Amino acid sequence: MQTLPTPTTSDTTSSQPTFDTTIKRRKTRPVKVGNVTIGGGYPVVVQSMINEDTLDIDGSVAAIRRLHEIGCEIVRVTVPSIAHAVALAEIKQKLIKTYQDVPIVADVHHNGMKIALEVAKHIEKVRINPGLYVFEKPNPNRTEYTKAEFDEIGEKIRATLEPLVVSLRDQGKAMRIGVNHGSLAERMLFTYGDTPEGMVESALEFIRICESLDFRNIVISMKASRVPVMVAAYRLLAKRFDELGMDYPLHLGVTEAGDGEYGRIKSTAGIATLLADGIGDTIRVSLTEPPENEIPVCYSILQALGLRKTMVEYVACPSCGRTLFNLEEVLHKVREATKHLTGLDIAVMGCIVNGPGEMADADYGYVGKTPGYISLYRGREEIKKVPETQGVEELINLIKADGRWVEP
Q: Which of 90, 108, 320, 367 lies at a CB distance of 3.0 to 4.6 Å from 112, suitable for a disulfide?
């Protein structure tokens, strides 16, 4: 991007405003999950979840490994019973023996204290849902919750949560308090309604219990299947954290986003909106597809926002009547030849009108300036003009000459 010098004048009212184009992330405490750190200024962490039944030891190990090998940094598994919790110990040991020690999160739901206590022995992080951890059967005839009833259930939650908190605290492990819009506890629904405020208060109740036991290795999520609800809940939680002096890292996600293009757009709309606000320390894109499909979407979101540089950034014009070559075809060729590289910006521009200006921030440029020929750029400098048939090959040679090429 070209920038103009600030006008030199004593009249400050006429000077041009300056805008910071980098995202300023909220300051959060670091929470260690095995060899990965969430928050504390560390890069936004990518997560996903396997589909395999945790009782299937070999299948689970293979699924965790597949995700980790393509960039998933923390893997979640479901643990619906004590048998699954015991199986997770074997999964962990087999991973270490046959691959490496991958950070694992155990998902514990209904009345899960015994399960959570068992699983906490074996893995780095336990995820609980405040609406389900102490499950109360809804009363269809209830018209209100008295303060005494509200507090009584709060004490029951504390008694049930305390052994898990103490176990995780003493082992130096982590917890995710994962609030879901669709599974708020009945008393939260009666008190606050089916609202982001109810979600936030549900999380704060559990956070306060943890803090009273001197446990702060906590990550919080506020997931919803509707993007506006999800965005509002996280923004409200961040505001409440500021008011209360809390600095816990946040796990972002749109739950049950669906599949295909819309699932990806829906997830991106929620996650990217908050990341652009500086909110969020770890993300999961939830697709109704094989979990391996979630990881590229996560990295694309982070790359587009400039939060992680994990692939080549391609800048390409949309093509128009001025374009002097088949832009789609050439972009495909350039991408296939260079997609294994990291940390580069490569521009493919169809004509001289937009080329040098629009691609000024790119490391390398491929521009159609005259029919049948390609001009190759390093930054803003035109390096050479080559026949169109040799354009991709000569681009690779230029990258090699600069010592920035690695073999696929």
A: 108
